[in-house]
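Review form for a predicted model. The reviewer records the input and the model, then writes brief findings.
Reviewer: anonymous (R2)
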Amino acid sequence: MATYAIGDLQGCHEAFQQLTELIGFNVTKDKLWLVGDIVNRGTGSLPLLRFIMKLGDSAVLVLGNHDLHLLLVAEGFAQQRSGDTLQEILEAPDRQTLLSWLRQQRLFYAEDEYALVHAGLLPSWHIAQAAELAQEVETVLRGEKYHELLLRMYGDEPNCWSDNLEGYDRLRVIINAMTRLRICTPDGRMEFSYKGQPRTIPSGYLPWFEAPQRASSSATVVFGHWSALGLQVRDNILALDTGCLWGGQLTAIRLEDRRVFQVPCARRSVAASQR
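Model under review:
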């Protein structure tokens, strides 16, 4: 049995098929850890969603910002943006089955010495706390009042964590950190507009995983979301978004020995501002 963590798919169905063939994925004994952003921008979101849903317990998926965006669009709480490729899902005969399944997925997952999240964790959150906070969101998203959460989900404020936060402000901070975070101040104030490389981060900010005394550093956090960061294999982080959608590569890493597997992706002519 092997566990393969795979970076952002974003509708790149053909590359995903090639990668699973390369690693020799066996659905009866192997497991896939998917860092989220399964859908959108690529042309194969619908078959990807269907395939991953059928994997059942052989796949662990954490939700990304594009996956949540699909849920908002489907409920009429957001409009499709330039470059979105969600219409095929929205018009599919099994639309409701797919969306209901997506809504049941995790925001965060931890097992042994590894933790899986789409974007990042705030510096003050240790692994057990992150799991509890994610569960707060998951419970609402899976429940009868999920519409209210989706309606109030978008927004950049509050931009930092406090144990005193309540209601949708509290849930929004958890969602934003786990699905949108790239950089923050050392004390955990988030900034969401920056998408560039680490060497040009604005003064006063740093990558979330380089925050001093980060409470989650006891585990190896597996994440994606930041394509300009590229592949990072360190003792306590595995960054796996290698820009497949933008003509880069789709990356998998076998957690047991940290062997990296990659397949090239077709280049897509998209303005960087759409990333």
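Findings: Residues 269-275 have pLDDT under 50 and may be disordered.
Further findings: Residues 126 and 216 are 4 Å apart (CA to CA).
Recommendation: see findings above.
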